[in-house]
């Protein structure tokens, strides 16, 4: 009985801290976004370049601290994964909950090609992207018929079936034992096997993904996707082809998740079906929603916060996932639009009132 | 062999049916995939277990204790985690439910410990066989309690004022409010009923496999959704039918195809149903209005 009371008291304490944390974080980012938006073009450029240089130098600051450096590599992996899901969820508005499946396909493609067939890493990475894209196409086709909840559960099913195949097809994937000994990549004869090397590979991949997201969002295709998200029927009436664009979003998201899967496999030198469970998909989904669906800086912040959180909570490890659950529910109640919402980036301030005021 | 798998499948199917009914009721009212439903099923099983081992109660009061306790949990979740998000975009409600599911799993780990607890055997399990069919008394109890609970539920939904209000709210919440129905109360009561049924299913599973553990609700929670979709979401007889179809096809599939793909069978049925008849076997198709 005293144990139950102790658990409840602890949970109440942590929830209180979380609540205050969310409020403070929201305020900080609100003010930050507003400040950033009034900058002129030149200042924005300077700020972005400064940020890029700062983040690019992280391995230099952390060169002594291997644990922190590995954590920052994981953060980058999750940033790319969350951005790739953002194509499907943020741009096209399709709720996909099987994103870890594409990540798994990419990781296993690289693992099997490099270990069993001695294919060079970079070529197998291209195959990872291709195979994941084909799976994205396979999953994209049923979305023509399904919406919302049905789509969500079908994608969960897709992820689970894939994981069961990875476990049961032992002659090809070695089943639950996993595939060890995935080699490190080489560039011009140098083998990249340090954390710093992986950091920069992923850093470049993250920059490319951000660039693609940014360009896509402001292009004809991206606007078509946003139109589908807002109202599919109206978009179709305006001459947009929803089928094509939705599949495109799935394929693009899947291909990027496949590439990062391949790099992940090489980074930890080992793949195993347990790395790609349903929880993994939920974590990626949470990153996107927590950061702000569709908003690129939001998704980056969401991925960073949620990738660091489990590490930061190691001290109270038994309460870790309970707190994670509370955070998720509380965030949805306190700040449903995400940390940096798409609306706030357009200068709308994030709520209806201020938007109508600014338009007047 | 076939008959044995069939009776096994029917027992399993009636448990799925109980879980799916609770699920489909909640979906019918607030259009939410209640990801926490499977975890309420687990909480119910653990509460019954606590009633049996800690308070030394006999099985029937423990069973009721589990159901009522899970119903209380269901109401609390609806009040604190779901109703503040009703007006937000759908995905927020969805993620709130996932958050609660993760929380409940870990809450159970904190209180009861992460390891599997063996459920005390409360019933003297005899195996009856007649005309070549072998059926155990546990399977009969599962079938019997399912029939009784579904009977009570059907009576409540079809013939009482509360049931009429519930059917109203599931058709149109705003209009029901205008007609003087206290919709908040109906939502909470639906959660209570659904969670109670889920808890009953969880306890029956605990009795059947003689084990309870914090993650026991996750896969059944997903399967309950699938069973509800197969039968037509929002329809109680549909959920019953869907649950039975799934239980039988799963135990036959595990026996004759491959036991490794046991959990995949449910998803394959789901995908086939969604492609052929998206509104489910007993569901009514709704045309989208522009």
Give your account of this protein's structure:
The complex is a heterodimer of chains A (360) and B (290). With 360 residues, chain A is mainly α. Chain A has a single domain, classed as ABC transporter involved in vitamin B12 uptake, BtuC (Orthogonal Bundle). Helices cover 76% and strands 2% of the residues of chain A. Chain A has 17 helices and 4 strands. Chain A has helices spanning 2-38, 41-56, 58-61, 66-91, 99-117, 121-140, 148-168, 170-173, 195-217, 220-230, 232-237, 242-268, 278-291, 296-312, 320-334, 342-345, 352-359; strands at 179-180, 186-187, 190-191, 270-271. The longest helix of chain A has 37 residues, at 2-38. The N and C termini of chain A lie far apart (60 Å). The relative contact order of chain B is 0.21. In chain B, the strands form 2 sheets. Chain B has a two-stranded antiparallel ribbon. A two-stranded antiparallel ribbon of chain B has the order 2-3. Chain B starts with a helix and ends in a 14-residue tail after the last helix. Chain B has one domain. Helices cover 72% and strands 4% of the residues of chain B. The interface between A and B is large, with 45 and 46 residues.
What is the topology?
The complex is a heterodimer of chains A (360) and B (290).
Chain A: H1 2-38, H2 41-56, H3 58-61, H4 66-91, H5 99-117, H6 121-140, H7 148-168, H8 170-173, E1 179-180, E2 186-187, E3 190-191, H9 195-217, H10 220-230, H11 232-237, H12 242-268, E4 270-271, H13 278-291, H14 296-312, H15 320-334, H16 342-345, H17 352-359
Chain B: H1 2-30, H2 37-53, H3 59-82, H4 90-112, E1 117-118, E2 127-130, E3 133-136, H5 137-159, H6 161-171, H7 173-178, H8 183-209, E4 211-212, H9 218-231, H10 236-256, H11 262-276
Antiparallel strand pairs in B: 1-4, 2-3
Helix pairs in contact in B: 1-5, 1-8, 1-9, 1-10, 2-3, 2-4, 2-8, 2-9, 3-8, 5-6, 5-8, 6-8, 9-10, 9-11, 10-11
């Amino acid at each position: 009985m005293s144990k139950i009371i102790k658990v409840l008291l602890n949970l109440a304490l942590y929830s209180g801290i979380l609540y205050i944390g969310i409020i403070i974080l929201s305020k900080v980012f609100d003010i930050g976004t507003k400040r950033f938006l009034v900058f002129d073009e030149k200042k924005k450029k300077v700020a972005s370049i400064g940020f890029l240089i700062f983040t690019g130098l992280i391995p230099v600051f952390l060169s002594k601290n291997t644990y922190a450096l590995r954590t920052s590599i994981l953060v980058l992996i999750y940033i790319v994964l969350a951005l790739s899901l953002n194509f499907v969820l943020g741009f096209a508005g399709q709720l996909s909950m099987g994103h870890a499946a594409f990540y798994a396909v990419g990781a296993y493609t690289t693992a099997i090609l490099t270990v069993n067939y001695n294919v060079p890493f970079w070529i197998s990475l291209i195959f990872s992207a291709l195979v994941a894209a084909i799976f994205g196409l396979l999953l994209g086709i049923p979305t023509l018929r399904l919406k919302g909840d049905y789509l969500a559960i079908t994608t969960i099913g897709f992820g689970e079936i894939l994981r069961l195949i990875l476990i049961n097809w032992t002659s090809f994937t070695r089943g639950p034992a996993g595939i060890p000994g995935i080699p490190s990549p080489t560039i011009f004869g140098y083998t990249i096997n340090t954390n710093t090397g992986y950091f920069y590979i992923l850093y470049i991949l993250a920059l490319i993904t951000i660039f693609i997201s940014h360009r896509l969002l402001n292009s004809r295709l991206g606007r078509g996707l946003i139109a589908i998200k807002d109202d599919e029927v109206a978009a179709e009436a305006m001459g947009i082809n929803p089928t094509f664009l939705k599949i495109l979003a799935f394929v693009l998201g899947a291909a990027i998740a496949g590439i990062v899967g391949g790099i992940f496999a090489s980074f930890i030198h080992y793949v195993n079906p347990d790395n790609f469970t349903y929880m993994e998909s939920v974590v990626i989904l949470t990153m996107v929603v927590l950061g702000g669906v569709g908003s690129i800086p939001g998704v980056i912040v969401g991925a960073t916060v949620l990738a660091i959180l489990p590490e930061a909570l190691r001290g109270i490890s038994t309460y870790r996932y309970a707190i994670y659950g509370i955070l998720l529910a509380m965030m949805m109640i306190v700040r449903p639009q995400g940390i940096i919402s798409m609306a706030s980036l357009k200068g709308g301030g994030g709520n209806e009132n201020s938007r109508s005021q600014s338009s007047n | 062999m076939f008959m044995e798998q069939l009776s096994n499948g029917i027992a399993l199917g009636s448990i799925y049916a109980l879980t799916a009914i609770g699920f489909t009721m909640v979906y019918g009212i607030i259009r939410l995939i209640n990801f926490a439903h499977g975890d309420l099923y687990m909480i119910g099983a653990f509460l019954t277990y606590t009633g049996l081992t800690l308070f030394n109660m006999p099985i029937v009061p423990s069973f009721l204790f589990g159901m009522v306790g899970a119903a209380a949990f269901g109401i609390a979740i609806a009040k604190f985690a779901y109703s503040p998000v009703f007006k937000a975009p759908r995905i927020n409600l969805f993620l709130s439910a996932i958050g609660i599911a993760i929380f409940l799993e870990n809450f159970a780990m904190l209180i009861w410990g992460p390891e599997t607890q063996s459920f005390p055997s409360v019933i003297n399990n005899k195996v009856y066989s007649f005309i070549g069919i072998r059926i155990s008394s546990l399977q009969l109890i599962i079938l019997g309690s399912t029939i009784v609970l579904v009977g009570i539920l059907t009576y409540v939904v079809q013939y009482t004022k509360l049931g009429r209000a519930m059917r109203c709210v599931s058709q149109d919440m705003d209009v029901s409010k205008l007609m003087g129905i206290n919709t908040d109360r109906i939502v909470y009561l639906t959660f209570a009923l659904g969670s109670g049924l889920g808890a009953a299913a969880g306890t029956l599973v605990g009795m059947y496999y003689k084990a309870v553990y914090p993650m026991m609700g996750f896969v059944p929670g997903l399967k309950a959704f699938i069973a509800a979709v197969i039968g037509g979401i929002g329809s109680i007889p549909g959920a019953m039918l869907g649950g039975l179809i799934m239980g039988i096809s799963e135990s036959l599939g595990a026996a004759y195809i491959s036991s490794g793909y046991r959990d995949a069978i449910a998803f394959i049925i789901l995908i086939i149903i969604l492609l052929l008849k998206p509104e489910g076997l007993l569901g009514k198709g709704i045309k989208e209005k522009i």
